[in-house]
Write a structure and sequence with these properties.
By secondary structure, this protein is α+β, with helices and mostly antiparallel strands. Helix content is about 15%, strand content about 40%.
């Protein structure tokens, strides 16, 4: 093959040039360079073939996947694609997008400011999708509408630990992310609030929203109303059931076709189920109370997994499993104790992804995954000391 290649090259040179005047040394150099290029190309093809067959080169595979996402899926600016600068975050929210097969993160606050950016986790790295659209906010409600293939955002607070009138900046705006951009939806919504819980009911194709809080005249008003979004309008479905509260953990159980809510303080931890018509308390599931924990449904094990929060005056790092009847503590190893973290189940890779949170003084930026048996640290950004600037 090499001999044929050189003969072809020599023939073309004879046709293009008068060989009697062609410098012999230049010809030798030209042939040598061509030979190097030829051999390199063969080696490159073979090495890539081996990589594809063995699957050992994970970083190259990840880069190719991200490249495909950039050009074919998200089409966002190259400067966002190259940006892998998600640092620390708390009071944010995570959801899984099964259509793009990524975990998405919105908003919250880093160590010094409140943010309104949108990020994605592909299993290897975080990359920014957008920093334009909804205003910066903490504790928004967020869910992915599988039927309509769109991300739905509602409410939140403009500050984290703001002082004075800033504490009253609660929001009731609604946004949808589709076609790679945010769109504000101008429609009647539930009242302004933060720390509401939201989950997508895939059986009835509805987004369920419960509770939250807002401040009025210096007083914290906790809410106990239940709303549903059907893709066209919000409708209040109930004002009964769990007592008014914020800081709850809520997720949809597709196996039992119920939305599950957990909340507790001190020794009282209650579990409630919503079937689309009414709330029912599951007394057999009463357990230790915990506030501001985070929860996701693991479809591989058919169980709800709950992590962290605030219990008996301390932040905790317990992991619990709910089987539809009772809570079972399954681990105290993994992420450090925290609250205001968020997690979502990645159904492509069968793992629960957890990111961020805080311990009171420090804001976290670590990414963990629960594989059904244990927590694995996937990306570690050192905690940052929270700046006391009333953000």
């Amino acid at each position: 093959m090499l001999e044929r290649y050189l003969k072809m090259l020599f023939s073309k040179i004879n046709k293009l040039f008068d060989f009697s005047v062609f410098n012999f040394a230049a010809l030798i150099i030209l042939i040598a360079v061509s030979l190097v290029i030829f051999l390199y190309s063969q080696d490159y093809i073979n090495s890539n073939t081996n990589e594809n067959l063995t699957g050992n080169n994970n970083s190259r595979k990840s880069d190719l996947m991200l490249s495909a996402l950039t050009t074919n899926e998200f089409n966002f600016k190259k400067e966002y694609f190259s940006k892998d600068s998600l640092t620390v975050r708390n009071a944010h929210v995570l959801v899984y997008n099964p259509d793009k097969q990524i975990v998405m993160l919105f908003g919250g606050a880093d160590e010094s400011q409140v943010l309104g950016d949108l990020w994605a986790w592909d299993g290897e790295k975080w990359f920014c999708l957008s920093n334009k659209g909804p205003s910066p906010r903490t504790f928004p409600a967020l869910s992915y509408d599988i039927t309509r293939k769109q991300l739905v955002l509602f409410g939140g607070n403009k500050v984290l630990f703001g002082t004075g009138e800033e504490k009253n900046n609660f929001l009731n705006d609604m946004w949808i992310w589709n076609n790679n951009s945010w769109h504000e939806i101008h429609t009647p919504t539930p009242s302004a609030r933060a720390e509401a819980s939201m989950a997508y009911d895939s059986d009835r194709q509805r987004i369920v929203l419960f509770g939250g809080y807002r401040n009025e005249n210096g007083e914290r008003i906790r809410l106990g109303d239940t709303w549903e979004w059907d893709g066209q309008k919000w409708e209040q479905k109930s004002s009964e059931g769990p007592e008014p509260r914020n800081g709850t953990a809520m997720a949809f159980d597709p196996f039992n076709k119920k939305t599950i809510l957990f909340w507790g303080s001190n020794d009282s931890g209650q579990t409630w189920e919503w079937d689309g018509k009414k709330w029912e308390q599951i007394n057999s599931a009463d357990t230790l109370g915990c506030f501001n924990s985070t929860m996701a449904y693991d479809t591989k094990t058919h169980s709800l997994i709950r992590f962290g929060g605030w219990a008996k005056g301390n932040r905790v790092n317990d992991t619990w499993s709910y089987n539809g009847d009772r809570w079972i503590k399954i681990s105290s190893e993994g992420p450090a104790a925290r609250n205001h973290a968020s997690m979502a189940y990645d159904s492509k890779r069968n793992v629960i992804v957890l990111f961020g949170g805080h311990d009171g003084d420090h804001v976290f930026g670590d990414t963990w995954e629960w594989n059904g048996k244990k927590w694995l640290l996937r990306k570690n950004i050192p905690p940052r000391l929270r700046v006391n600037n009333s953000h």
